[in-house]
Amino acid sequence: MLTSLLVSLVLSLGRAGEGEEMVLGQTTDYHTSLIALSGHDFYGLQIAVRRHRPCQVRAFFHDAPPRAAQYCFGRVTQRHVTEAGSGILDAGERVNGVAACFTAADRVGAVRLYTFSGEAVTARVGNCVTEFRTVWCERGWTVQGLQLYFDRPAGGLSHASLVGMRPLCVDSA
User: Fold this and answer.
1) Number of domains the chain is built from
2) Residue ranges making up the domain that contains 121
3) What's the domain of life for this entry (predicted)?
C-alpha cells in the first residue's frame, strides 16, 4: 500500500515517467515498481534469469534493504542469483540515466546505469540485438527506482520476462 502511494506520488508530482519517451522497451499490464522509501538513493540492480527469461529484478538502495520483483515460477535459488547480471555503483554515486538493450525475443538483454560523473555499470543477462537506448532524468533529478514491465503475470506456470522499464526520477535538490 505504501509503495503504491509513493509511486503514485512520484508519477503525479514529478515529471517522472511522463510519456512514452521515458519507457525503455514496451509497457504491459503486468508491472510493478521498485522505488526507494524514505529518500534512500538507488544505486544498483540485479537481474536473475530462469530458462532464458529475465524474471526477477532486485534493486539496491543506500542504507536500505534491497527490494525485489519476482515474476519467476518457483523459487530463485542461490545458483540463479550467482548467475544473475548485476550492475552496482560505488557508494555515494547517484543514478541519473538508465539504458537498456533487447534480445531477439524482445526481452531485456542488459541494463546500464549512468551517474552524474559519467560512470556506468551494466547488468547483462542476454545477447542484445538492439543498441542501448538511454533515458535521462532532468538536470538535478535522480533515479529513485524503476517501474518494470513483464510479458505475463507473476505466479503462472511459466516464467515471465522483463520486457520494459521506466526510470522513476525525482528532484534531488
Assistant:
1) 1
2) 2-171
3) Bacteria
- DSSP state at residue 127: -
Residues in the chain, total = 173
Beta strand spans in 53-150 (E): 53-61, 64-70, 85-88, 95-102, 108-115, 120-124, 133-136, 141-150
Question: What is the rounded average pLDDT of the residues 106-119?
Answer: 95
Residues 6+ apart with CB under 8 A from 142: 41, 42, 94, 95, 96, 169, 170, 172
- Residue 169's pLDDT is 93
| Distance between CA atoms of residues 32 and 39, nearest Å | 19
Average pLDDT for 111-118: 94
Q: What is the CATH number of the domain that holds 70?
A: 2.100.10.30
The single-letter code of the amino acid at 30 is Y
- What's the CA gap between 4 and 8, in Å, rounded? 6
**Nearest C-alpha neighbor of 133 from the set 107, 112, 154:** 112
Distance between CA atoms of residues 99 and 22, nearest Å: 11
Three-state secondary structure call for residue 125: coil
Cα–chain center distance at 83 = 18
Q: Name residue, grid cell 530462469.
A: 50
